[in-house]
């Protein structure tokens, strides 16, 4: 175990170089050609360090996905990550990859290209020391996580159903390095309201304002927020009308909902989907859906976390903690089928922000944590009564 830790410390420079290469290949979710170019570099790095069965999964809408399989066994451990980022093409000009002290900056370094690098080197270390693992390991890298995983969801679900455990390379919860053992469910909805246009000065009585109706519905929807239950409902974008002197015939809004418990999701979502107008002459159309269900901290997930905590304390001299995350990830999907431990990726800060960065010295540490966790989970099942 300590040999793996020491070895990965010596690989820090190569890990940083691999991160530099991946970051300099921009991979915005909607730009398939760019994601695929970055994906080719990822495959080159994988093939350089890991001896496995590599499969490129073609995707006509978004970037091609990568599936790497190594080892044998009837049971499977899934290591899950994504290559796409929220940053548009050209961001590197304003936010170039750079190193300042112990921090590496750049678009996507934290969420989550450093996590991918750490995953690759964890597998590399296990193979270098010929660690016997009785379970097959599948490393799946998708390309549309940042926009809801619509094209990769079926693949994720399929792999999760075959897996005994799932380890997700999303960033740590905070700069202190906490893992994520629970996540809120996430829903995205669009609201379209149609009223009746009229001249606002000459014939206002003939108009029915869609904007006024939207304002009423926003107040109703925001009242569904219940912080004690971990539920938030937020209208983040609105638009409507064509001119200041016209009663608005159309108005639209984008809604985000975050819910901690499945039973609360069952209560709130029908209220959103069932919006009705407050007066005649108006119509309301609601579209959208829950994109990721809540990930609850089950006893099996808690046992996985305590195994990681034990490894961190014994071999890495770390006091590892866990946390609920308000954000969604593909771990929310896999947790419906297999015990899932999330937040095993990079330690840093600034996800989706212009100060996005990772702590370089933590890359080999987190890579070692993942490697040792795979070793432990691959050797021994976590029994229900443990």
What does this structure look like?
By secondary structure, the protein is of the alpha+beta class. 36% of the residues lie in helices and 24% in strands. It is built from 11 helices and 18 strands. Strands 1-2-6-3-7-16 form a 6-stranded mixed beta sheet, with helices on both faces. A hairpin with a 7-residue loop joins strand 17 and strand 18 (357-359). Helix 9 (299-316) crosses helix 11 (362-379). The chain is elongated. The relative contact order is 0.19.
Alpha carbon gyration radius: 23 Å
Judged by helices, strands and strand pairing, the structural class is alpha+beta
Q: What's the tally of helices?
A: 11
Indicate the mean pLDDT: 96
How many strands in all? 18
Strand content bin = 15-25%
Low-confidence blocks of residues: 382-386
- Helix-strand string: HHHEEEHEEHEHEEEEHEEEHEHEHEEEH
Fold blueprint:
Blueprint (H helix, E strand, L loop, with lengths): L1 H9 L1 H12 L8 H18 L3 E5 L7 E6 L5 E7 L8 H4 L3 E3 L2 E3 L3 H20 L7 E7 L10 H9 L3 E4 L10 E5 L1 E10 L3 E2 L10 H13 L9 E9 L5 E2 L2 E10 L2 H12 L9 E10 L6 H18 L5 E4 L4 H5 L5 E2 L6 E2 L7 E3 L2 H18 L7
Parallel strand pairs: 3-6, 3-7, 7-16, 8-15
Antiparallel strand pairs: 1-2, 2-6, 4-5, 5-18, 9-13, 9-14, 10-12, 11-13, 17-18
Helix pairs in contact: 1-11, 2-3, 2-5, 5-11, 9-11
């Amino acid at each position: 175990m300590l040999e793996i830790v020491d070895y990965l410390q010596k690989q820090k420079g190569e890990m940083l170089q691999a991160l530099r290469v991946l970051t300099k290949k921009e991979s915005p979710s909607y730009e398939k050609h760019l994601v695929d170019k970055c994906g080719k570099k990822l495959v080159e790095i994988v093939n350089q360090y890991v001896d496995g069965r590599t499969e490129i999964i073609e995707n006509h809408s978004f970037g091609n996905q990568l599936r790497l399989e190594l080892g044998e066994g009837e049971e499977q451990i899934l290591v899950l990550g994504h290559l796409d980022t929220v940053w548009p093409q050209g961001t590197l000009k304003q936010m170039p990859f750079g190193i300042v002290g112990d921090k590496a900056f750049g678009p996507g370094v934290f969420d989550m290209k450093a996590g991918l690098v750490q995953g690759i080197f964890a597998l590399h270390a296990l193979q270098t020391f010929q660690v016997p693992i009785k379970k097959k390991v599948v490393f799946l890298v998708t390309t549309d996580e940042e926009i809801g995983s619509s094209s990769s969801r079926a693949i994720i679900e399929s792999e999760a159903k075959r897996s005994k455990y799932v380890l997700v390379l999303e960033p740590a919860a905070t700069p202190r390095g906490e893992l994520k053992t629970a996540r809120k469910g996430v829903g995205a909805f669009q609201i379209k309201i149609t009223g009746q246009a009229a001249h606002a000065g000459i014939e206002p009585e003939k108009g029915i304002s869609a904007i006024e109706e939207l304002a009423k519905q926003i107040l109703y929807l925001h009242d569904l927020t219940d912080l004690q239950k971990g539920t938030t409902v937020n209208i983040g974008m609105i638009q409507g009308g064509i001119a200041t002197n016209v009663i608005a015939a159309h108005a639209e809004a984008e809604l985000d909902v975050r819910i901690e418990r499945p039973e609360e999701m069952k209560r709130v979502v029908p209220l959103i989907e069932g919006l009705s107008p407050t007066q005649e002459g108006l119509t309301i159309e609601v579209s959208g859906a829950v994109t990721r269900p809540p990930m609850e901290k089950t006893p099996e997930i808690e046992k996985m976390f305590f195994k990681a905590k034990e490894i961190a304390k014994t071999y890495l001299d770390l006091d590892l903690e866990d946390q609920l995350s308000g954000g969604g990830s593909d771990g929310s999907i896999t947790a419906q089928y297999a015990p899932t431990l999330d937040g095993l990726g990079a330690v840093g800060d600034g996800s989706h922000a212009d100060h996005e960065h990772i702590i370089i010295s933590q890359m080999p540490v987190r890579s070692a944590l993942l490697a040792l966790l795979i070793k432990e989970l691959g050797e021994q099942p976590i029994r229900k009564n443990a």
